[in-house]
Amino acid sequence: MIWTNWARNVSVTPVRQEQPASEDELSDAVRRAVKDGHTVRVVGGGHSFTPAAATEGVQLSLDRLNALHRVERDPDTGHALVTVGAGMRLHQLNQILAERGLAMQNLGDIDRQSIAGAISTGTHGTGAKFGGLATRVRALTVVGPDGEVTHASPTEQHDLFEASRLGLGATGVLSTVTIEAVPAFDLHAVEEPWPLDRVLEGVHDLVAEHDHFEFYWFPTTRRALTLRNTRVDAGTSAGSGLAHRARKAAGAARSFLDEEVLSNGLFEAVNRVATAVPSATPTLNAVAARALSARRYTAPSHEVFCTNRRVRFREMEYAVPRDAVVGVLGEIDAWQRSTGENVPFPIEVRFAPADDVWLSTAYGRETAYVAVHQYWRLPYARYFDAAEQILTAAGGRPHWGKLHTRDAEYLEGQYRRLPDFRRVRDAADPEGVFANPYTQRVFGFA
């Protein structure tokens, strides 16, 4: 059976596909693959734009490994430690946490991925004090090429833990993941269109002054949609009686209008017009930027962090030093204006603190993320190549799950701990059972 990712830019025919329903079945599936001489790759939600999950060997889906195993308390922090099957989707995890008065500290803007896929590719959100998902991992279990299960944490199999919590599944198959959750909280969200110059002039203050700040900018325009989210106590959005139900109904209607009709339905139509009539794109972008409206609302954190994405696209994202972001955006803007490249999709800019995860794109430095997108029916190579040259000149690190052309030689210059990662990977998987051409390109051969 042919497997295709969400973006429809990667297709492959594995020799077989399996969906183990238990850790024992997972171990057995790995052993049989090795016995038959096949490599093994794992697929979650298929939201990577890279061929990270592609294999002509055995492709394992973890969808049936999606149980809640236990909820404990960390004796040092008092935070909840939540252990789940590695195949659990983020939207399922968010619901389970909410039912227990808990939440993820931070999230990206899509919740369709599996927890294993999200941490393994470096999924992140935005916020100067809140790192990516992998920074919240406190333990995991890894199934090796011999089918043996190893528990890894900061105090047990430390190096395997570091290499496995963000490592594209190159050290083995994740079976369970233990995440540190926090007490549930709401977010007060303010979405406003601003002049781009105002955003760029105050960007560092905006990042510092708000818990979560990001913005979207349509190429060739000088307007951006700013998103500023402030953390407030859980229940802040609640009320009582008929007035609360009326507000909730109105909010649901507005959300449907914004996300399904305006942000998805209308945006799909705009991109189809831009595809058919490229000369109309600057006008369409200008109209879209001018049509953006302000709104304020308060809701549970995961409802604000995550949005529905129904317009299919291709994406490349690079992490650059935060101080470099204004210059990088200026160069991308100048290139786009000089070439007239047909780009009807906005650029997304987010922020993260420095962290210590070996292969995190924010390792050791305060980071700005610049994500360029292209509608899936339009060519993207020239645009992405030009943006990549600008981003790499600024010392950019590519997102592990999004399109890029970098290889191990380049990445070794960006990741001080990449040699340590390779040492752990080579010890955990000396025969390359869990490798594929993409992991070999970015990490080097075993």
Please outline the helices and strands.
Elements: E1 3-4, E2 11-12, E3 16-18, H1 23-35, E4 40-43, E5 58-61, E6 68-73, E7 80-85, H2 90-99, E8 102-103, H3 115-120, E9 137-143, E10 149-152, H4 158-164, E11 173-183, E12 185-195, H5 196-201, H6 203-209, E13 212-217, E14 223-233, H7 241-276, H8 281-291, E15 295-300, H9 301-305, E16 313-321, H10 325-339, E17 347-352, E18 367-375, H11 381-393, E19 397-398, H12 408-412, H13 418-428, H14 437-443
Parallel strand pairs: 3-5, 4-5
Antiparallel strand pairs: 1-2, 6-7, 7-11, 8-11, 9-10, 9-11, 12-14, 12-15, 13-14, 13-17, 16-18, 16-19, 17-18
Helix pairs in contact: 4-13, 10-11
Concise description?
This protein has helices at residues 23-35, 90-99, 115-120, 158-164, 196-201, 203-209, 241-276, 281-291, 301-305, 325-339, 381-393, 408-412, 418-428, 437-443; strands at residues 3-4, 11-12, 16-18, 40-43, 58-61, 68-73, 80-85, 102-103, 137-143, 149-152, 173-183, 185-195, 212-217, 223-233, 295-300, 313-321, 347-352, 367-375, 397-398. It has 446 residues and is α+β, with helices and mostly antiparallel strands.
